[in-house]
């Protein structure tokens, strides 16, 4: 049985470090940073850790309907999604995720684009 990317890279402890680094980058970005003003960051990091884990084949996951509802009140445009995707790619690379594994994770992320964008 082939190991999931979640298991290959060390599970929640590693994904959590990637997500914390990703949010440092997101908060510093003028385009996407404002989405996180007045947000409970501990809660969103927890959700995002579970979400990224699921993108990597980990045990936690969200349904498409849950993802759509969590983002329905936000005006997330294609450029915002593109920026987040770019930051995710850079963060994965900086944490030693192999290029072919980045492609797989980013493809899973891309598959959710229409659930969060207008």
TrEMBL record:
<feature type="binding site" description="distal binding residue">
    <location>
        <position position="71"/>
    </location>
    <ligand>
        <name>heme</name>
    </ligand>
</feature>
<protein>
    <submittedName>
        <fullName>Group 1 truncated hemoglobin</fullName>
    </submittedName>
</protein>
<keyword id="KW-0349">Heme</keyword>
<dbReference type="InterPro" id="IPR009050">
    <property type="entry name" value="Globin-like_sf"/>
</dbReference>
<feature type="binding site" description="distal binding residue">
    <location>
        <position position="47"/>
    </location>
    <ligand>
        <name>heme</name>
    </ligand>
</feature>
<dbReference type="InterPro" id="IPR001486">
    <property type="entry name" value="Hemoglobin_trunc"/>
</dbReference>
<dbReference type="GO" id="GO:0020037">
    <property type="term" value="F:heme binding"/>
</dbReference>
<keyword id="KW-0408">Iron</keyword>
<keyword id="KW-0479">Metal-binding</keyword>
<keyword id="KW-0813">Transport</keyword>
<dbReference type="InterPro" id="IPR012292">
    <property type="entry name" value="Globin/Proto"/>
</dbReference>
<dbReference type="Pfam" id="PF01152">
    <property type="entry name" value="Bac_globin"/>
</dbReference>
<dbReference type="GO" id="GO:0019825">
    <property type="term" value="F:oxygen binding"/>
</dbReference>
<dbReference type="GO" id="GO:0046872">
    <property type="term" value="F:metal ion binding"/>
</dbReference>
């Amino acid at each position: 049985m082939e190991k999931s990317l979640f298991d290959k890279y060390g599970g929640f402890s590693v994904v959590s470090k990637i997500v914390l680094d990703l949010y440092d980058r997101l908060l510093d970005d003028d385009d996407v940073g404002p989405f996180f003003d007045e947000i409970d960051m501990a809660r969103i990091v927890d959700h995002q850790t579970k979400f990224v884990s699921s993108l990597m084949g980990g045990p936690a996951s969200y349904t498409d309907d849950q993802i759509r509802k969590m983002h329905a009140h936000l005006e997330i445009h294609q450029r915002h999604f593109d920026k987040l995707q770019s930051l995710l790619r850079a963060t994965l690379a900086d944490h030693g995720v192999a290029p072919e594994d980045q492609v797989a994770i980013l493809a899973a992320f891309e598959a959710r684009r229409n659930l969060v964008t207008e």
